[in-house]
Recover the amino acids of this structure.
């Protein structure tokens, strides 16, 4: 099983980034996919989640209206479009695949830094 995130980097406040997470080794279309983030000195927090077929989506209050999660089951990929970025969005972003407690996988993360 592999989850590989990409798309992180340095961006100025107000800018945009698009994160991608490519999955392999499991049946992607049957898993809930989520993006989490962990800022320095803070606990990991859920940013956004999308159901297996993309019907149900949820966001943390802190990113509502700025971030958009989507998935392409044909490409085994989940995306996080991040707009109007703020310095407090600086964190390592992780994608996760969840089906059950025993079937919960994590990527290694991609660093997003929002700074002028």
């Amino acid at each position: 099983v592999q989850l590989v995130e990409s798309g992180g980097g340095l961006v100025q406040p107000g800018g945009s980034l698009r994160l991608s997470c490519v999955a392999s080794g499991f049946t992607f279309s049957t898993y809930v996919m989520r993006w989490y983030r962990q800022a320095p000195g803070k606990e990991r927090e859920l940013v956004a989640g999308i159901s297996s077929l993309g019907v149900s989506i949820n966001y943390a209050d802190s990113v509502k209206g700025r971030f958009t999660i989507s998935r392409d089951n044909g490409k085994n990929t989940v995306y996080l479009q991040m707009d109007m970025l703020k310095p407090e969005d600086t964190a390592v972003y992780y994608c996760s695949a969840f089906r059950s407690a025993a079937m919960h996988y994590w990527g290694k993360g991609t660093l997003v830094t929002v700074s002028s």
Remarks:
- The chain has no helices and eleven strands.
